[in-house]
Structures are given as C-alpha cells and as structure tokens.
Amino acid sequence: MASTNLKSIGAAAALALTIGLGVGSPAGAVDTYTPSSQITVSNPTPKAGQSLTLSGTTTPNTLVTVTITAGSSTQSLSAAAATTITLGSTTSDANGAYSLTVTVPSTLSAGSYVLAASANNTVISSSNLSVTAAQTTTTTTTPAVTTEKLAFTGSESAPMAGVALAIIGAGGALVLLARRSDELETS
User: Fold this and answer.
1) For the whole prediction, is pTM greater than 0.70?
2) Closest-CA residue to 67 (of 132, 119, 133)
3) How far apart are CA 126 and CA 96, in angstroms?
4) 8 near 14, Cβ under 8 Å?
5) Read out DSSP for 73-87?
6) At 85, is the secondary structure helix, strand, or coil?
7) How far apart are CA 39 and CA 20, in angstroms?
8) What is the DSSP pairing of strand 97-103 with strand 111-119?
9) 77: Cβ–Cβ under 8 A, 6 or more apart, which residues?
10) What is the DSSP letter of 47?
11) Backbone phi, then psi, for 145, in 5-degree steps?
12) What is the 3-state secondary structure (H, E, C) of 101-140?
C-alpha cells in the first residue's frame, strides 16, 4: 500500500481549487490564486502549552481550520488521522490571507507533529512542527526568619520578688521578736 504524503494531497487539493472548472469565476475564467505550500509558523519548535501564530493564504473569504497531527508530513493520512486535534479556525480576508493564534496542547508529548490548514475539508497547506516538553517549574518556599520580640503582656517580676522577700524577712523577724519576748516573760 502506497503511503500518501500530506504535501501531495495539499498540492492536489490546491490544484483542484485553482482550476475549479471555472466555478465562481466570471465567464468561465480560471482563478489566478495559487495557495502557499506551507503555513508560516511563528515558532516551529514550541513547548507544549505555548502559543503560536500561524498565517498563510487561501481563497478569499474562506473558513480555514488548523489541526495538529502526531508524526511528520511524510506519514500517510490514515496512519495519523486518529491523533488529529483541531486547534482553531478563522476566515481568510478579501485577499485570501489568514492569521490565527493557537495554543499547542499542554498534553502533547515532545516529538514531531504536522500543522495542517484545511478549507472545505481539504488540506491547503501544512508545516512540520517539533514540540518540546513543557517546562516544569518547582517553587520552594522558605519560612521567613523574624527577629521581632514578643509583645510585652505582663510586668517585670524581679522588683515584685524583692518586695515579697523583704515582707517575708520582716515577718520572720517579727516572729523571732515575739518568741524572744515570750521567753523573757516566762523566765
């Protein structure tokens, strides 16, 4: 079974759109539009989860849908069709130009992918994309060390302890005096 190349399909579709048997052209004239063979990609090696801007040309005022497929443009469409993800769509302007900002799915693993732009269910252009793994960041927090003192909620106990000792000492002295005076009276 021969492998069908995405670029071959895109070129055949572009030729079919260009010739179009005169449909939509005045008096049977052939449209002069020639589609681009590749999507222009702002970053051909993005990280998973990163945004990209895609642009290209097609027939004027046409809905363009952009998809991403695992593999490379040399794989057959049937082998890659099961892993195609639609990234977004836009409508080309009056000159056929389109531009679209999309986000590479953060769930994609690192590897080769194909971006394909389709109009009327036909691939009109494609580009290889090499996705790198999403960057993971680890944040470590360290508790702050403070040198503030605790709030003062009481009083100084040292002066009060001195007063208490003085009162106890005075009380002890009075007790001794009272005993001596009792001893002297009994003798």
Assistant:
1) no
2) 119
3) 16
4) no
5) TTS-HHHHGGG-EEE
6) strand
7) 22
8) unpaired
9) 4, 6, 9
10) B
11) -95, 120
12) EEECCCCCCCEEEEEEEEECCEEEEEEEEEEECCCCCCCC
Q: Say which amino acid occupies 26.
A: P
- Are the C-beta atoms of residues 34 and 22 closer than 8 Å to each other? no
How far apart CA 49 and CA 87 sit, in angstroms, is: 12
Give CA–CA dist 58/78, Å, rounded. Answer: 24
Per-residue pLDDT of the chain (187 residues; tens, 9 = 90+): 444 444 444 444 443 333 343 333 344 433 333 444 568 889 888 998 999 999 988 889 999 999 988 876 544 444 445 578 999 999 999 998 999 999 998 888 888 888 889 988 888 888 888 888 876 666 666 666 666 776 667 677 777 888 888 899 898 888 888 888 888 787 7
- Both tokens of 105, joined, read 């799915």
Contact criterion met (CB below 8 Å) for 89 and 130: no
Q: Tell me what pLDDT residue 150 has.
A: 67
